[in-house]
Each structure stands twice: as C-alpha cells, then as structure tokens.
Design goal:
Strand content: 25-35%
CATH topology of the largest domain: Dihydrodipicolinate Reductase, domain 2
Number of domains: 2
Distance between the termini: 40 Å
Order of helices and strands: EHEHEHEHEHEHEHHEEEEEEEHHEHEH
Number of helices: 12
Low-confidence stretches: none
Bound molecules: nicotinamide-adenine-dinucleotide
Length: about 375
C-alpha cells in the first residue's frame, strides 16, 4: 500500500486527496495546509491527519509520496524538499514558474532517484484520449496538422490572485489553461521543436500575464500545430484539440465532453461521421459539478503514478513533459518579444527524471 500525503488543500488539493482515498492501492496519510480548517475539510471522513506545516509530511517515514497542489511559486521548494526527504512526487501543473526552476526540480529528482510525475490530467479526459487513440491507430491516415485551443474568462474565473500575478504564476493564459493544451499537442503530435508566437495583454491588462497567446508550432517530425490559449473566452471553459490526417479528422472537446470523427478512404472520398456525446458525464456534471470529471482523471493519475514508480510504461506525464511545457510557454514569450521563431533543444539524459512517459514515445513515432 503506497501512503500518500497531499500538500495544499485548495480546490484542487481537495480533489487530489479524494482521488488518493478512493484508490485501491494507495492510502491518504495526511493533508498539509497552513489553513488548518482547509486541511481538516480535505481529510474529513478519512483516517488521515490534517497538519499545518508541510515539512512534517516530508520528514514522516511512513509516507512514500507527496502530491504538490499549492500555488505555482511554491512548487519548487516543496518538490525539492520532498525528494530530499526520500518521497516520490506528483506535482500539479505547471511544474514551476520558470524553466530554470523546473530544471532544478528535475535535477533533484534525478539525483535522489525519485519519481517525478506532473498533473497534466487532461490526457485522461475521455474525449482527449479518444483523439490520441484515433491518431495512433492510423484511423485518419497520416497526421497532417493539429488545431489546439484552450480558454476561459480569465480573471473572472480565479479565486486567488496568485493565478494571474506573473511573478508567482510565471505568466498568463499560456501558463494556466495553455499549459494543458501544450501538453496535449505534444501528447498527440509528438515533441514540439519550434515555436513562433504572439502574446498580448490588452483585455485584462495584467503586466507580464498575457490574456492571449497564439502560435504556430512545429513538431520534431514537421507536423504544424495552430495554437491559441486565452483568458477572453467569454463562453467559459473550453478546450479543443483537432487532428487532421489525409484520411479524416478527429475533434476532442470539453466542456461539454464531445468527439467528432470524420473518416474517408482517400482525400476527398466518401465520408463517414461519428459523434460521441458522453451523456453520462454531462448528466453527472449537471448534478454534481465539473469537479467530478476532474476527480475521475485524478483517480487515473494516482493509479498510473504507482505504476510509474514501479517502472512501468504509462500515459502519466513525467518530469520532462512538465519541463518541456514550460519551455514552450517561454519560447512563445521570447518569440513574441523578438518577432522570431524559436527552436527548442532536444531532451538530454541529465534532464530525464522519468521512468517512462510511453505515451510521448508513441506519439513521436506515429507522426513520423
Ligand atoms: N490539473 C488541473 O486541472 C488544475 C486546475 C486548477 C489548478 N491546478 C493547479 O493546482 C494547484 C493548486 O491550485 P488551486 O486552484 O487548488 O489553488 P487554491 O488557491 O485554491 O489552493 C491553494 C492551497 O495551497 C495552500 N497553501 C499555500 N501555501 C501553502 C504551504 N506553504 N503549505 C501547504 N499549503 C499551502 C493554500 O492555503 C490553499 O489552500 C496549482 O498548481 C494550479 O495551477 C490544476
């Protein structure tokens, strides 16, 4: 039985604690938050402890792994303390608020021989998983290009100011909802190699925090990715990924959860259309909220976390994926400042803390 502690009992930490509690092979040991009442809420109905200082979790020999679910500027300190204390870590997205900070986290995981996973839970949303499976199965033929979009209504959506203060969060829409979409683009098209982007902040006017980031990216195998992340999606929370091949296209969208698959035998040939509407999820969200969908994805992540620690190949994002997503955000910022495209370096062994993010390897092979 893997004993897990959760650091941070905000909206997401509460769901993380629930996901551990409902796992068959993990158990919730404790939740830490300086707001002790929040920690107590997160452990209520369980045998886990509520504590105010996360360092008590780090030094607890009975705990095997920690989930870091705090504001982004605290991730580095907590991940590094956890590794030094001999714990594996599942850190919320984004891994940290700068590339250098992410690298320090990966280096410590590597040195201490501990597993680092990153909470890119959109990989496990059924509509997104469907897109990944369809592309991998070759159902739409050879992958030609991706269209990726993620947005919500920005500051109107946030409960705490750390979400939009760039000195804490590392940026705006790109580091927030955009980081999920960057990861999904890599997940489906393989590694992103080149970024040409524009960031603007004319809507919410927060210095250093873009409310729109648009880009053309290119995968290592040359697949173009048309990308937008935004804090001015007035419809509300929307994420969409569309993959186009010579024999069809597939769309994955949320919210609501939806897929469209169009297939043809040859370019321009007779087409078949399939729509998947996920009525069970839509009704459950109407009755019990969007949190139930997030919780399902967190439950999958916990199950995969145990397997990743055991050295199995899983679809859970690893440390490299966490770092690369922040590198892509940074490249977009740099490209916007310089009006030039940016080419990203390749993965080096020193930066690989993961056991096996097999989903990425499959995506890279597939799109070649
Ligand atoms: N995976 C997703 O879909 C998703 C969605 C939203 C947010 N997130 C990420 O989850 C993380 C938490 O976001 P949130 O919305 O729950 O934030 P939140 O502001 O609701 O909660 C943060 C919690 O951290 C606690 N905290 C602050 N300092 C602490 C410390 N020193 N020790 C322990 N706890 C401390 C706060 O008291 C608060 O309870 C962030 O990294 C965020 O980017 C992920």
């Amino acid at each position: 039985m893997m004993r897990i502690g959760v650091i941070g009992a905000g909206e997401i930490g509460l769901l993380r604690a629930k996901s551990v509690e409902s796992d068959r092979v993990a158990s919730l040991a404790a939740v830490a938050d300086p707001d002790l009442a929040a920690a107590q809420r997160a452990v209520s109905g369980t045998s886990a402890k509520a504590i105010s200082d996360y360092r008590d979790l780090v030094s607890d020999d009975q705990i095997d792994a920690l989930i870091v679910s705090t504001p982004v500027h605290l991730h580095e300190e907590m991940c590094i303390a956890a590794f030094e204390g001999g714990k594996h870590v599942l850190c919320e997205k984004p891994l940290s608020n700068s590339v250098e900070s992410c690298k320090r986290i990966l280096a410590t995981a590597e040195r201490t021989g501990k597993t680092l996973a990153v909470g890119f839970n959109h990989r496990f949303y059924p509509a997104m998983k469907f897109v990944k499976d369809v592309v991998e199965a070759g159902t739409i033929g050879r992958l030609d290009h991706l269209r990726v979009f993620g947005g919500h209504d920005g500051l109107a959506n946030f409960r705490a100011d750390w979400n939009y203060k760039s000195e804490l969060s590392g940026g705006g829409a790109m580091m927030d909802v955009g980081i999920h979409m960057t990861d999904l683009a890599r997940f489906v098209a393989g590694e992103v190699k080149e970024v040409f982007g524009v960031a603007s902040n004319r809507v919410w006017n927060v210095p250093g925090s873009e409310d729109n980031a648009v880009a053309i990216m290119k995968s290592e195998s040359g697949v173009p990715i048309i990308f937008q992340s935004t804090w001015s999606e007035w419809i509300g929370y929307q994420v969409v990924i569309e993959a186009y091949g010579d024999n069809g296209m597939v769309r994955g969208a949320y919210a609501p959860m939806f897929n469209l698959l169009v297939t043809q035998d040859k370019p321009g040939g007779p087409r078949k259309k399939i729509k998947k509407r996920y009525p069970g999820i839509i009704i459950r969200e109407k009755l019990k909220g969007w949190q139930t969908t997030t919780l399902c994805s967190f439950e999958t992540e916990i199950a995969e976390f145990g397997k990743m620690i055991a050295g199995e190949c899983v679809a859970l994002a690893d440390g490299w994926s966490g770092l690369r997503a922040v590198e892509i955000a940074n490249a977009l910022y740099e490209s916007s400042r310089t009006d030039q495209p940016l080419v990203l370096g390749s993965r080096s062994d020193a930066e690989s803390s993961d056991k096996c993010d097999s989903a990425m390897e499959v995506a890279s092979r597939q799109s070649k």
